[in-house]
Amino acid sequence: MRERYEIRIRGLIGPLLRRVFGDLRVETLPAQSTIRGRMSPAELDHLLLRLQESGVELVFLEGKGS
Asked: Which top-rank group of organisms is this from (predicted)?
């Protein structure tokens, strides 16, 4: 089951890292970036692992149900 998620990270997301997000929506703010979209729990785990491997600091994570 795919759930809507909002993930906020500190800093800006460059073009190479944006490719990891596929069809997720990415919004860049002055001090952080927001990633929104529907993902399965496995897809979320994979994305969080990729962010961690890239040295990105997670600020906020929220699941919003289906």
From this structure: Bacteria
3-state helix, strand, coil in the chain (%, to 5): 30, 40, 30
The CB density around residue 7, as the number of other CB atoms within 10 Å, is 24
Which structural domain, as residue segments, surrounds residue 53? 3-63
**CATH value at residue 28:** 3.30.70.1150
Structural domain count, the chain: 1
Q: Does the pTM of the predicted model rise above 0.85?
A: no
For residue range 5-58, list pLDDT tens digits in order.
999 999 888 777 777 777 889 888 888 999 999 999 999 999 999 889 888 899
